[in-house]
Structures are given as C-alpha cells and as structure tokens.
C-alpha cells in the first residue's frame, strides 16, 4: 500500500474531513449542527463499514510510526479530545484508538487535578504525559480544561485564565517544533442528546458507573460552556495546531471523522519503513552459522 | 452473560489452560515441546475463530474491571510476558491486549535500563509502572530480566542476583496482597523456530527494524538462558503468583492460551457492575428538570 492509496479519498467523503471540520473564524459554537455529518454522504451502515476499512489503514500507518520511533525518530502524533460530558470521548478511544496496536498508544485521561497536580503549574501534568517518539498519544481532556471548566467555575481569576490562551499557543508551538503533530478535536453534542445519553446511564445497570450527579449541575451552565468553547476555538486554533469541530450526536460519524483526521496527520509524516542499521548480508551469514 | 457462561470451558479445550500450562516442580525447560498446544484439541483455524470469540469475553470482563476501578476498587490484573527474542511478546500485546479497550490498559515495555534506571534499585522502574485499580497492566519484559539477562551476562555478581529470587517473591506477595492478580507467562520458542523468525526479519523490508544483531549473539548463550529460565520457574513460581509455560512456535496457540489465562484471572475477581453511588430516582427527576 503506498501513501497515495492510503490518502486517496473514499467517494462517500465528498469533502475531506480535515477540510470539512477545520474550524474557521466564522465557526459559531452556538450554531453547530451536532447531528450533521460534514463531508460525508453515507449513512450509518456506510460509516460502520468505513470504520473497519479505514481502521486498518490507520493501524498500518501507526505501525510504521512505531517502527520509526524504535529506530530513533522523535516524531509523534497527539490526539487531544475535548468535549462536554457524554460527547463520546471514551467511546472514541475504545473504537478508534482500539483499532491500533496498544504498544504504540500512550493514553492519558485527565480528571479533576489531584492535590499534587494542584501544587504545580497546570501544564506540569500535561508535560509528564506527552508521547515519546513513535507513539500515538491520546489525551482524554487536556490542558484545555484550564480554560474551560476553570473559566466557567471561576477556579482562578479572569486575569489568570485569560493569559493561558497565549501560553497554550506557545506551548503547542514548541511541541510541534519538537516533532509532535497535534490533532485537536472539539466534540459537540446537543443539550437534548446529552439528556438522552445521561438518561440511558440512569436506566442501565451496566452504565450506572458512568453517571455523575455533577453532570446535571453542569447542564445549567451550558451557555457559559458554549462561550468558553467559543473562546477556545477563536484563540487557540492556530496554523501549527488547528482545532477540528466534530458533531457527535451520531457516534458512527464522529468515529470515522476522527479516524480520517488521524490518517491525514500520519500520512503527512510521509513515513517509510526505517532502513536496516546493519549489513543485511553479513547478518544473514551470522544467523546461518548460529 | 453470567460469570458461569464466561468461564464455561469450550469443548476444544480438553484441559483448561490454567491447568495445562501451570508450571510444576517437574517442568524442565530443556524438554518443553515448543510446538505443542497443551490442553487444546483444535487446529489453527479453530484457534483463530476462538481468539475472536473469547476476545469478546475478555473485553467484557475487562470493561467491568475498569468500571469497578473508576468506582474505587483497588484491584488490578498484571500480565507479565517473559521470553527469548522472537517468542512473540509484541504480537501477544497486539493481538490479545488489542482486543480490549485501550482506556483500561497500562502497557510498559522494559528495555535495557536507562542511565537513570541504572542508578536505582532494579524494582524502581517496575514500581513506577504498576497498574492502578481497575487497570489491566501489561509488562513486556519485567523485573525478571534482572535474573535472566543479568545472570547470563554476569552484569552483577552471583551473590547479588541469587538473592533476587527471594526478593521478587516477597515483592510479588505484597502486590497480590494489595489486590493485583499476577498472570506470569513464560513464552518458549525453539532454537530453530527463532532462526526462522530472525531470517524473516532479515528478508522483509517491513521487518528490518525488528532485527537486532545482538539477537544472534544471544543465540550462542541458549543453554545459559535455559538454565536461567529453569531457575526462574523453580524459584519464583509461587502459590500467590505462579508461572505459566506457554509453547510459542504456533503463534495462534500462544494467543488463545494467554487469552484464557486472562479470562480466568478476571473471572476469579467475581466482578459485577458497580452499584450506583447516588439515588437513581432522584437523579432521574433532576435530569428531567435540567
């Protein structure tokens, strides 16, 4: 399979996901159609088929990234997932990242900061979790919590959080400069769809553990969150690390969309199998004699 | 699916893997039939079908472990993979662990100790990588390197490595006491099969990166390694943390065998979905009003 084959667009993608989803200066969080399937002309069945087909492509590219990392390549890819509760961050990890080799995945879920984390700069725990060369890093929530929940709940004064956008841009610029491709995904569900998903967690015994009473409290702060997400997109979508806005009412769509975003990021690295760092013929002889 | 269904033995398993593979005082490393499929009466096609079928069972159990971990359960499962080069440790991770949710997997590959690791006790890096409650930890190599390669290459004097067996037993007893179920898997290939696999790495461009000239050097030390593996099995297979000896010339067999060992370990935890830590009816009303 050549790079060309991998990146060739499927006819059901009328616009490539990277183009259809990339945030622009016109993106309005309050106007996002969370049921939409931007760029994709297929239905759920098409999407499920495509997840499998393109998952194999993603897996092949990821193996090559891993191989290069083992051979000293410092480059890595970092998927950042941000979204309101029930947007489907966990399912994204399970169904998209679950398609690639666990050896090459470095997954971190960021929760409420621990007492130790609170005693440090907010980027301290982020730095500790960055993927090394060859790894596909996955952040389930990230440093963006520090301009989202922190902003909405006034956990630090406005003069503190307002300085963070610029700091984050600089931090990410450094990451990109050091070889990490960032794939920043903002996941959006509607208030109604969130209610439906929370209700399901209350109905099903196997989902009770996913429900947190605070999630309902947060619903009353929806407008404030929309404002915080808007500011995040406006201020931290940069050329070196753009945001992609993914509608998530249809889980099947959000999963194939992120699969495409990752395939695009990996394809841009123009990877090949790393060359042998030894003399192949000499080694064949040594092996034959051993 | 009840616990009973999950643990019900498939007719092709004439003896459960935990029984067929558990090392005994009679196990002789030099006499292991690495082509054998202990306990399993099927062929490769049966094995491939079974990997998928039982992988789904493993995945369901792992999700329940993860759910309990999120609800405060401190228990975890740790798979330890030891084996000579080409035994298939990486493929085991990819094909067995790759079947479960990456969110619940904590994978660590231990290589040659870094300068920092060398300045610490050999269990320092192990302690840092232990799975937290609810996680399925995976060690690709482990503290057993410190009584295998270290012993064979005299990296420390005999009086040092000889004391480690007892120390490891005590260390693992503590882990088990604290809620970690250890699944220790010793993977064996024959010298001939290793040669074939190394030759393939030299033949295939997409496998050159997996080949290391040192692997051939190590082949000349095969008897010393067999002796070190024998001592490891004899001295560190305990009631709280037994070793399982898995023949690995047939990859499909080794993968279904380890899948069964993990299913057994998880089943013994007798997990159920964690109960709601809130009043379900109250929350339904709160949600409806939100």
Automatic annotation (TrEMBL), chains A, B:
Residues covered by the Polyphosphate kinase-2-related domain: 47-267
UniProt keyword Disulfide bond present: no
Residues passing through the membrane, by range: none
BP GO terms, sorted: polyphosphate metabolic process
Alphabetical UniProt keywords: Kinase, Transferase
GO molecular-function term, one example from the UniProt record: polyphosphate kinase activity
InterPro entries: P-loop_NTPase, Polyphosphate_phosphotransfera, PPK2-rel_1, PPK2-related
Pfam family, one: PPK2
Coiled-coil residue windows: none
Signal peptide annotation: none
Protein name according to UniProt: Polyphosphate kinase 2 family protein
Organism, scientific name: Rhodococcus spongiicola
């Amino acid at each position: 399979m050549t790079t060309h084959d991998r990146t060739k667009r499927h006819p059901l993608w009328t616009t490539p996901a990277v183009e259809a989803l990339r945030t622009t200066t016109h993106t309005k969080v309050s106007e996002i159609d969370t049921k939409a399937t931007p760029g994709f002309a297929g239905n759920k069945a098409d999407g499920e088929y495509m997840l499998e087909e393109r998952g194999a492509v993603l897996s092949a590219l990821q193996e090559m990234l891993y191989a290069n990392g083992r051979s000293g390549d410092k480059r890595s890819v970092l998927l950042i997932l941000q979204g309101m509760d029930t947007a489907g961050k966990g399912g994204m990890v399970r169904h998209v990242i679950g398609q690639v080799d666990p050896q090459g995945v470095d997954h971190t879920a960021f929760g409420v900061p621990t007492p130790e984390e609170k005693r440090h700069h907010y980027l301290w725990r982020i730095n500790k979790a960055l993927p090394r060369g060859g790894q596909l890093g996955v952040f389930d929530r990230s440093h963006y919590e520090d301009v989202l929940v922190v902003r909405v709940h006034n956990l630090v004064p406005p003069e503190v959080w307002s300085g963070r956008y610029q700091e984050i841009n600089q931090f990410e610029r450094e990451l990109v400069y050091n070889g990490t491709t960032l794939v920043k995904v903002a996941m959006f569900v509607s208030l109604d769809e969130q209610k439906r998903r929370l209700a399901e967690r209350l109905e099903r015994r196997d989902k009770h553990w996913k429900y947190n009473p605070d999630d309902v409290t947060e619903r009353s702060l929806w407008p404030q969150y929309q404002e915080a997400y808007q500011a995040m997109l406006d201020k931290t979508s940069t050329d070196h690390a753009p945001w992609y806005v993914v509608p998530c009412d249809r889980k099947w769509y959000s999963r194939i969309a992120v699969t495409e975003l990752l395939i695009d990021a990996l394809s841009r690295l123009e990877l090949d199998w790393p060359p042998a760092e030894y003399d192949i013929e000499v080694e064949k002889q040594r092996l034959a004699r051993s």
